Amino acid sequence: MDNNDRKSFEKERYLLNDLLVQYSNKTTKRFFSLDTQAYEGGALDKKTKEMLGMVASLVLRCDDCIKYHLIQCHNLGVSDKEIEEVVAIGLIVGGSITIPHIRRAVSFWDGLGEDK
Amino acid sequence: MDNNDRKSFEKERYLLNDLLVQYSNKTTKRFFSLDTQAYEGGALDKKTKEMLGMVASLVLRCDDCIKYHLIQCHNLGVSDKEIEEVVAIGLIVGGSITIPHIRRAVSFWDGLGEDK
Amino acid sequence: MDNNDRKSFEKERYLLNDLLVQYSNKTTKRFFSLDTQAYEGGALDKKTKEMLGMVASLVLRCDDCIKYHLIQCHNLGVSDKEIEEVVAIGLIVGGSITIPHIRRAVSFWDGLGEDK
Amino acid sequence: MDNNDRKSFEKERYLLNDLLVQYSNKTTKRFFSLDTQAYEGGALDKKTKEMLGMVASLVLRCDDCIKYHLIQCHNLGVSDKEIEEVVAIGLIVGGSITIPHIRRAVSFWDGLGEDK
Amino acid sequence: MDNNDRKSFEKERYLLNDLLVQYSNKTTKRFFSLDTQAYEGGALDKKTKEMLGMVASLVLRCDDCIKYHLIQCHNLGVSDKEIEEVVAIGLIVGGSITIPHIRRAVSFWDGLGEDK
Amino acid sequence: MDNNDRKSFEKERYLLNDLLVQYSNKTTKRFFSLDTQAYEGGALDKKTKEMLGMVASLVLRCDDCIKYHLIQCHNLGVSDKEIEEVVAIGLIVGGSITIPHIRRAVSFWDGLGEDK
Lengths: 116, 116, 116, 116, 116, 116
Description:
Number of strands of chain A: 0
Low-confidence stretches of chain A: none
Helix content of chain A: over 70%
Radius of gyration of chain A: 15 Å
CATH architecture of the domain at 44-116 in chain A: Up-down Bundle
Structural class of chain A: mainly alpha
CATH superfamily of the domain at 44-116 in chain A: AhpD-like
CATH class of the domain at 44-116 in chain A: Mainly Alpha
CATH topology of the domain at 44-116 in chain A: AhpD-like
Mean pLDDT of chain A: 95
Shape of chain A: globular
Distance between the termini of chain A: 25 Å
Largest sheet of chain A: none
Number of helices of chain A: 6
Largest interface: A-D, 31 and 31 residues
Oligomer: homohexamer
């Protein structure tokens, strides 16, 4: 299944999440709610937290995680310039091995803008 | 080539393994036989070893390795509950970055059950 | 601080854990209790789960995590032969880059036996 | 050489940086100036960028990189609560394998506060 | 988009690079030129450097990076036997987790030969 | 145990290797001989292979592996300029997260030269 644009990405997640819940025990389910909780606004606002999630996903090179955080960043009004700076830090920290992921990230981000 | 179900996964492996052997030197070929040997029953039984291979593949986030070990686990009678507990440990050790791989893993595992 | 034997390892953990709790927010504290929960006996027994934690720590190359799981394995009666097989799988999956960690792991494991 | 507090950490860096420059070719030297440039204020302020560097270092589990960014965060006035939230995101994304690094990070961070 | 042969791989790169440049700030653009510079002949010749890039990409398990360096190696006259030895070292260092990437690498390499 | 110079590094290896062999099963022992075999001269000479081992160890950020390959490189007559170019490629591929390892690597390399 291809998930290179927001619609297909979210459809795939939706379809697979049903199975994910079905095969999740108590520990796994509690982890999922912690995962949501970690990005709620606190001393740092949600926007900053989503950019933290984005750079962490980039240096760990997980395309789906990158796409997820890009959608959140887009919803929270992160600008093109801000994403470029998050990407630059991820690239410097993680090196050229992140470039193929950055290529796919900017393509996905560009598509998010076109949805507007 | 898509390899999201057992049949296409095994077909792809079969096709690519021919080339793999053709471009393998002595060191590489010996590694492959060690790789097989490591999972043979000993002080630990094969089932435990395949679950060890599964959790190692999950935290290192290699989809094809996960699928391979899921097939072995399935063949050896690992239950849904057992896989869920292996997945929970992989998720706790490896963090949310493993979630997209878990999503694909449970989808593949679910398909294995339907083959029965 | 050196932590190459059980006593100094556990002393360091004890000292640092105080600070860890002091600087942990709700999300972090909940993660810690999930981390404990994941290794409780269920469909898989505790011994199997600690070996899963051990191999995951080995392929991710975290010395302190390896030591922690080796202590748990030791407490639960995992034998030398079983540890050797867990290590062999970690080595095959993770490659020669794990060898320095294995060197330190067997040294720590050997020390655990001498405590008896 | 131990580098668990700011003074010894900065002394070690100072001593080793001389050798580092001596064995750096043009590419390496240019990388170092890019590395500095990436954290300069722009669309995102320096404080946000240092927190991005911190979370990236945490999920990639590099103690020295974590210490470096903690010093920068401290200099820029990042609060305890903010660090705790950065750490919580790193822990959720990177999993329990990051815990030993978090233990050392909060100990180092605590020491920075005592310097004041 | 599938990129399993040279033509489709290079087409995808070409298409995405336009977006990549559009969303690259000064730091990112400078990194790209450093990335090119690092592989220019010096004390080590270009061929050796591309093999270094290849083994680094293999142990870090980045398919697109592997493909890129395989194309460069092919252009510079690296032989099948030489690639097999680079692959063997990557496999030994990185372990069985690299095998799916090696499978795809040799398939791509084999295709490069057929272009001649 | 500190291993920042050749003598103490080799002493530590020597001491720990005894235990390593004692706790190694057949699979592990065979892996060790494969590991040696992979670096023997073939289509590529030993010097090139040790530089491949060095860059792979650098991007995977294993200090002990780096030190081991630096000793081999030194024994085989790799020059300062050549090491600098290997390091530059590792830095570009692996990013700033490799810098603390590079700092320790050049310090170790510098010490090897002084032994002469």
